[in-house]
Specification:
single chain, 380 residues, alpha/beta, 32% helix
Length: 380
């Protein structure tokens, strides 16, 4: 990444800058790599002998919780300043207004960039990445197609290929080592198969706790115990339960109503999992994406079902309550399939948060019984 930036920063300016694509799934250390490189770039920007001397660079992320984290890091690291961190729409609008071109723009979680106009949020271009490529000599993106959470951010291989062709120079690099989850391949393969609506035999791993629960309360109690022992353990849920930003309290609840947990609260200062009191809440995809937990308890809500006759997972997108995720259907050939992918991507992200263990509670009775029966059979 450093070689790419040092080489391309002095390339003759074109309409579109150079593009470096770093791909990798959840947990392979993408954000760690990016923040480390950005710190080095900013350090070299102050060295007169460096090709990067006096360059104007930004790190962009379209995720409120991660944006807060980066701003917090900037206060503690010598060469990083808060002004060098931005969300994509404000940065695009600011550079366009001032008729300026940045030197290097790093994009974390590039799968969250918009691929359609969003006039409500003041983005009037057709694609965030395309606009950033016009506004920088170099754009470096961290990307995972399996972490797209909104139709208006739905990336396709064709879109990325087109933008690579438009850039004056492009390269790709793949990150493959799983650094977050201290789990064996059986666990990772089980989650990856689940993401593709397949149920594999339950995995075994002596060093990673993988467990299914009969009730949400039992899972929450287990997570509270792990939180007392190891810290940073939380319950998270698929977005299958009503959650509005009107100051009211909304709940993730079992279908029989016996147990419920309030949806996550948010803070302007702290990320959700950093607050000790959030052990009593259920986190959403928007508060936990990109972050590590020691143990994660995942509630699979009503959208995630099991067909006993066909012996397969079924996704019902109509039961997914994040309606904002479904806006922007223009130009999408198979809308239902795209909605299904959004739900499956969210499950994949939630299941890959835990360093030491993954707990699962399924609200759908057929799925819960299937998983528990498999667990009971394996324990004999």
């Amino acid at each position: 990444m450093l070689e790419f930036c040092e080489k391309q920063v002095n390339a003759a300016p074109e309409e579109y800058g150079s593009l470096l694509v770093i791909e990798g799934e959840a947990g392979v250390g993408k954000s760690v790599v990016l923040s480390s490189i950005f710190n080095t770039i900013q350090e070299r920007a102050e060295e007169a002998s460096s090709p990067l001397y006096q360059t104007e660079n930004y790190l962009v992320v379209n995720h409120e919780e991660m944006f807060k984290t980066y701003k917090g890091i900037a206060k503690q690291v010598k060469h990083l300043k808060a002004k060098n961190f931005a969300k994509p729409t404000p940065l695009v609008n600011s550079l366009q207004k001032d008729n300026k071109k940045a030197d290097i723009i790093f994009v974390d979680e590039a799968h969250l960039l918009l691929t359609k106009p969003d006039t409500y949020n003041n983005f009037h271009g057709s694609n965030h990445l395309e606009e950033l490529l016009k506004l920088a000599k170099i754009v470096v993106i961290i990307y995972d197609q399996n972490q797209v959470l909104k139709l208006k951010s739905l990336w396709g291989a064709a879109t990325l290929e087109q933008l690579k062709e438009q850039s004056i120079y492009n390269e790709e690099y793949q990150l493959t080592n799983q650094f977050r989850m201290q789990a064996n391949d059986d666990v990772i393969n089980w989650i990856n198969a689940f993401k593709n609506k397949q149920l594999l035999p339950l995995p075994h791993d002596e060093n990673y706790e993988f467990k299914l629960f009969e009730s949400m309360k039992d899972m929450h109690d287990a997570i509270k115990m792990r939180n007392s022992e190891f810290g940073l353990s939380r319950v998270v849920s698929t977005f299958d339960y009503l959650h509005k930003k009107d100051g009211g309290t909304y709940y993730v609840n079992e279908s029989n109503g016996e147990y419920k947990m309030p949806w996550n609260t948010t803070s302007t200062k702290y990320t959700w999992a950093e607050k000790p009191e959030t052990i009593h809440e259920a986190g959403s995809i928007y508060t936990i994406q990109g972050f590590d937990l020691n143990y994660v308890g995942v509630v699979l809500g009503p959208s995630v079902q099991y067909d006993e006759v066909r012996d397969e997972l079924v996704i019902d997108p109509s039961k997914y309550m994040d309606k904002g995720a479904y806006s922007g259907t223009d130009g999408i050939a198979n809308v239902n399939e795209a909605k299904e992918k959004i739900v499956l991507n969210s499950i994949n992200i939630l299941m890959k948060r835990g360093i030491k263990g993954l707990y699962i509670y399924a609200s759908d009775e057929a799925l819960r019984n299937k998983l528990l029966a498999d667990q009971h059979r394996d324990s004999k």
